Amino acid sequence: MKILLVQTSFLGDTILSTPVIAGIKRLHPEAELWMLTTPVSAGLVQGDPLLAGVLTFDKRRRDAGLRGLLRKARELKSHQFDRVYALHRSWRTAFLLFLAGIPCRIGFQEARLPFLLHRRSSRKGLEHEVLRNLMVLSGEAGLGSFDPALRLFPPSAEQPQSEIMGSLPSPGSYVCVVPGSVWITKRWDADNYKELVHSLVESGTPVLVLGDRSEAETAEHVCAGTGARNLCGLTTIPEMMQVVRNAKGLVCNDSMSLHLGSAFKIPTATIFCATSPKFGFGPWLNPRAEVIERTGLPCKPCSRHGGNACPVRTEACMREVKSEEVLQALRRVISIS
Model pTM? Predict the structure, then answer.
């Protein structure tokens, strides 16, 4: 049997989907399992030994529009998949899998165009996204049958490394700081990040600031005059995984980085600004994770995923959490002088 797993959402969503990989292989150990994800998310899963291959769906660019959808459907059809599990719930995903003619299509009741799926499970009533994703397998076994641990496989130390990776501080000696997020209202204030980084460096703790190229301006501001090393935009996704896995601790927003910390069980301090962990995207199976947020605000949480502007124009959730609070939270999970 040849099976496809589909998750074409954000990077963090892909990480929270990885237990489904092991779940499918538990149910179908002899199956050839592939995954369809976005080009940027492919780096998160390409090292998973349970996957026979990773396909990409560039839905915003190369595969955009009806022509791109038809081209991708032809590609999927050529692989002759027998079954697909769809974690992504958009109409585009449902229509793509229908056009690909995959004979057994499994997804969620809450998906758009659910009538294009052969079997549907409900995601409702579960507190964390990891468990909601695993519900796609509930028609074949109970939720308690599956291992809910996140699965990430960064490059090993034996693999060839770039010049940047070869010049990093020794494992376990540094703290990673990731000040960015896709959504503006999920980003803790950059000045507060800078104060935190300065305090860490002053205490003798090396700091590596991570992110992608779009976050370079923020990273430069956070690093300026602090002595922190700015790696923003300089690492690939697999390299970023390796940097975080070897870190002493991690400070980040409600973002993909939080889930990296959970996957590797790195001591993590996460600032939740516009969003809330109660939506099911908080730390997962990480005993050394701290959540910091400004509670009691009548406007918080203002949305499930954050937005590009504060709806009440105060940015209170982003600014009122002070750097000392985050530093104290980090001290509760790692040793800092």
Answer: 0.95
